[in-house]
Amino acid sequence: MELEVKVAEPVAKKLSLVDYKTDYHNDWCPGCGDFGILSAVQMALMEMQLAPHRTVIFSGIGCSSKTPHFVRVNGIHTLHGRSLPFAIGAKLANPDLTVICTGGDGDGLGIGVGHFVNAGRRNVDFTYILYNNGVYGLTKGQASPTLKLGVKTKSLPMPNINEGVNPLLLALASGFTFIARGYSYDVKHLKELIKQGIQHKGSSYIDVLQPCPTYNDINTKDWYGGEDRKDPATGKALPRVYKLESRGYDPLIKPGTSDGEIREKVNLFLQKSMEWGDEIPIGVFLKNETVSTYEERIHQRIKTYFTSPPGLRRIADAQGRANADLSAFFAELQVT
Amino acid sequence: MILNKLSWMTGGAQGSGVDSAANIFGRACTIGGLQVYGKREYYSNIIGAHSYFQVRVDEKPVRSHVDTVDMLVTFDEETIFRHYGEVVSGGAILYDPELISTSISRVPTLEEEITGRIEKELKPLGLPSTVEGILKLVEQRGVKLYPIPFGKILDELTAEVGEEVATRLRKTINTMAVVASMGMLEFDFDMIVKGIESQFKGKQKVVGMNVKAAEKAYEFAKRDYAAQFPWKLKKIVTDEKRIYLQGTQAVALGKLAGGCTFQTYYPITPASDESVYLEAHETFKLSDGADGHEGSIVVVQTEDEIAAVTMAEGAALAGARAATATSGPGFSLMAEGMGWAGMNEVPVVITIYSRGGPATGLPTRHEQSDLLFSLYAAHGEFPRLVLASGDMEEAFYDAARAFNYAEQFQTPVIHLVDKALANSTQTCPMFDVQQVKINRGKLVNGEILAGNGGYKRFEFVEDGVSPRAVLGTPGAIIWNTGDEHDEVGHISEDPENRDRMMEKRMKKLETADKLIPLSERVNFFGPSEADATIVSWGSPKGAIVDALELLEAEGLKVNFLQVRLIHPFPVDYVTGVLSRARRKIAVEMNYSGQFAKLVRQNTGIAMDHLAVKYNGRPISRDEVYQSVKMIMTNPQSPRKVVLRHGA
Fold first, then answer.
1. Are residues B229 and B185 in contact, defined by beta-carbon separation less than 8 angstroms?
2. Which parts of chain B sit beneath pLDDT 50?
3. Do the beta carbons of residue B605 and residue B524 sit within 8 Å?
4. For residues B382 and A8, what is the distance between their CA atoms, to the nearest angstrom?
5. Percentages helix, strand, coil for chain A, rounded to the nearest 5?
C-alpha cells in the first residue's frame, strides 16, 4: 500500500502576505481584537519567509483557536487546553518545524494550565501566543482565569469571585525563556514580538492584550487607549499601554550572566509584570539565553537526534522489514 | 523422585530483596535449560508490605501458575502466615528456626481478615497463634519442615571472613534461603552462580558476597535435607535460543521492532516499567545502519495522561510512529485525546495495562475489566482497532503490528495487555525481529500537487483511507480540527459533508476487517470437535492452554478459541466456531463477563457458562481445569462460576 511520490523541494519564491492567508471565512465578531493578532502573525511569517509546509500553528478551542484556519501554513486545531502537548510532540518529532501555538486565556490558563507550567520546564523551541481578553467568548462571556477579582463584565451575573492569574509571572515561574506582552491594536509592535519569539531558541510566551468587544466591557479598546482619561491640556487620550523599550528596560540574559545579575533582572521583571491599571507595559520582559532547549538535552543523549529525529528516522530496510537491530537487548535477556 | 516439575514460592517484605532472590532462582533454572513461568504479586507500597514470587519449573514450556506450592521458601514469618495453606502434602516449608515463637499479632502488615482466618483454624486444634502453631498444623497435613539456621550459617561465615564483611552478608539472607532450596533440589551449583552473576550484572562485590553466602547455604541444605526431599531439578542441554523476560519488556521490544520512535507516559503501575525500559534502551543499532544511521526512541515523561496521548498524536502528525502506555485510570484521562485522533485519523498506539478497577481499585493487582471501556471510550463514534495479547510472544509481535494497523487504517489502535502479563516472567523462544514487517499504509512523501493548497488530507476515497502526508512534507499544507471538517480539514457543519465524512471514517473499519488476515485475529487450540469450547482473550490464555492438557489426559474433549483482534471483531469465524460448539464457556477476569457480552453482541450467540475472577489475582491452570471439569461433568453447575483463589 506504499504510495510514494518523489520530488525535490519546491523552488523557493518570495512569498507575499497574501500567500499566508486563506479564503476560509472568518467568523469573529466585528471589531474583535483577534483580527489584529491574526494580521501580526501573518506579517511575521511573511517577513521571516517561513516555508508554509514547515510551519505549523496549533490551537486549542475558542474564538482565538480558530486562527489556524485563516493562515496558509499547516494548521492543527486541537482540543480545549491541549494545544501545547500536541505542539511539543510535533516539534520533538521533527525539530525542523517552526511551531507556534495560538489560543485564549481560558484555554491556556484554565483547562490547559498544567501543560503551560510543564511546557516551561522543558523549554522546547516553540512560540505560544495567548489571546488574553479576560472572558470565555465562545460560550458567551464567562469569567476567564485572567479576569481580576471583583470585576463584573457585562454577561457575568455577579462580580468575579476569583482573583485573576498573572500570566507573565506564571510564565516566569514555569521557566519560559522568552516572555513578552503585546497589544492587539498595536499590530506592528506585536508582529516584532512574534518574530523575536519565533527566533528565540526555547519556549516563548507572548501574552496579547486583546479586547473582546462583545463580552468584556471593562478592558476595552477605549480603556487600553485611555479614552476615559484625557489630558486636560491637550484633550488627547492618555493611553494606559506603554512600551518597555521606551523606558530603557533590558530583558536580555546572555550566557555567562552571573547569578546575582540574573536575580536583579528577575526583580525588575517582577516589578514590571505587576504594573496594571494606569500603566500597562508591553514589550519583551525576558529573553533568557542561558537555558538549554529540550531538543539539545535529547541530543546530549541521542547523538543522531537532529539528523534522524523521530518523525524522519528510517524504520524499515529496503525489503520492508524492521531495521531495528535489537540483538544487544536480547543478549541481556538470553538464557540459553 | 519428581524430576524437573516444581511449583516453588518465596516471599518477604517489599524492599528486602525478594525480587532479586526469586530472580536468582528463575535465572539459574532458565540458564540450566529449564523452562519457567513466574508470577509476581505485590502491594501498592514501597517498603514493608508483603510481596511474593511463585515460580513453576518444567522441561517443557510453562505458561501459567498453579494453586499449589511444592516448596515454600521463607526467611520471614509473614510468608509462612500467608502461604502455609498452599503447600502440598509431602511438600516443604523452609524457615528460620529463630522465628518459631513469633506471634501472629506481631506482624502488623497482616490484614485483620487474614489473622482472623488463621486464628479460627488454629484455636480448635489447641495450637498457638504463632509460627510454631502454623508449622504444627501443616505438619499434621503432611507438609515437611526444613529449618534453615540462618544465624548459625552467618556465624560460620563470620568466622571465615571476619566481622566487617559478615555484617554485609546479613543482607544476603534471602539469597541463602533460595539457594538452600536449590541445595535440597540438588540443582547444579554452577547454574546458581551464573544466576547470581546474571542478576547482579556489573556489581562484582555484590556477586561475590552472594556467592559466598550461597555456598554455605547450598552445602548445608544438600547435606542435611536433600536425601529426604523427593523433588529434584537437573539441568538439561537445549539448542533452542531462549530469553527470560517480563511482559513489559516484551511490549517494549515489540515497539522498538515495530519502528516506534516516540513514546510518552505518565507514571502508573504497572505500565511505567515499559517506558522506563525503553528510556534505558533509547539508542540501538540498525540492521541497515552502515551509513551512520542509528536507531533511537525519544521517551517523554509528561505532566499527565492527557498530555501523554496528545503529545504522542502531535509526534504522529509529524511522521513518528508514536505510542503511549498506561493503565485504566490513565486511559480514562486519555479518552478525549483519543477521540481527536479518531476524528483526525491520526495513527497512534495506546498500550493499556489493565489492573483492578474502578477508580484506584487494586493498583498492583490483576483484572481484565477495561475491555468494553477500551471499545467505547471517548464521546462520539469513530473507528479504532483493539487487539489483546495472550502471552509474551504475542505481546511482542502485536506491539510491533499495532503500528502497521495504526498507519494502514489511520486511526488509534489500542493494545490491551494486563498486570498479569506485565509482571510475569517467562522463558520464551528468541523473538525474531526479521519477522516484523513494516507497512506504513498510504503515507505520501514529496510534492503531492504543484504549489500549495492542492492537498486534501481527508480526501474522499473508496476504502476510507486518504493519502496521508505528515507535517513538513513539501507541497502539502495540512489542516486538522476536532470539529467536523471538509476534505481539506476546515470546519464544516454541512449535513451532506457530515454524512460523507462520517461514512468515510467508519468505512476504515470495514477495510480493516477485510485486510487483516485471520491468522492475526484468532488462535484456536485443541480438537475441532469437542464437548466444550472455551472462549477467552488476553492473558488467561496460558492457564487455559495448560489446563487443556489436564482435561485431555482425563478424556475430556475441550477446545479453546482465543480472540486476539477484539475490534473489528472476527464475526464470521467466531460465529462459525460457536455454532458448532456444544457447551460454550467464557473465561475472563472481570465481574460481568464483558467478552461474553461482546461475543453475543457480534454473533447473537450466548455463552452457556462464565468462569470469571475479579479478586485481583490472575487465574491459575488449576482454576481453569477445575471449573471447566465441573461445568462439563455436573449438570447442576451454575451459569456463572466465580473463581476465588489467590493470596
1. yes
2. 452
3. no
4. 36
5. 35, 20, 45
Q: Is B253 on the interface with A (CB under 8 A)?
A: yes
Question: Which B positions 417-456 lie with beta carbon below 8 A of chain A?
Answer: 427, 430-431, 433-434, 436-448, 450-453
Is the backbone peptide bond immediately before B270 cis, with ω within 30 degrees of 0? yes
pLDDT at B205 (0 to 100): 87
Alpha-carbon distances of B467 from A58, B172, B239, B303, B458, rounded to whole Å = 22, 60, 47, 33, 8
Nearest 10 degrees: Cα torsion B354, B369, B365, B103 = 180
Min Cα distance B252 → chain A (Å) is 11
- What's the complex ipTM? 0.96
With CA atoms as reference, report the closest residue to B304 among B331, B279, B277.
B331
Q: Is residue B32 a contact partner of residue B4, using CB atoms and an 8 Å limit?
A: no
d(CA A73, nearest CA chain B) in Å: 6
Residue A318 burial (CB count, 10 A): 8
Mean of the pLDDT values across residues A269-285? 97
Question: Residue A41 and residue A100: Cα distance in Å, rounded?
Answer: 10
Q: Which of B401, B411, B403 is nearest to B346 (CA)?
A: B411
Residue B288, classed as helix, strand or coil, is coil
Asked if residues A115 and A332 have their Cβ atoms less than 8 Å apart, the reply is no
Flag whether pLDDT at A13 surpasses 90. no
Answer whether the bond into residue B358 is a cis peptide, omega within 30°: yes
Q: Transcribe A17-50 into DSSP letters.
A: GGGGB--SPP-PPTT-THHHHHHHHHHHHHHHT-
B378 touches chain A (CB under 8 A): no
HEC assignment per residue over A290-327: CCCCHHHHHHHHCCCCCCCCCCCCCCECCCCEECEECH
At residue A5, does pLDDT exceed 50?
A: no
How high is the pLDDT of residue B447?
57
B370 burial via Cβ count (<10 Å: 0-12, 13-18, 19+): buried
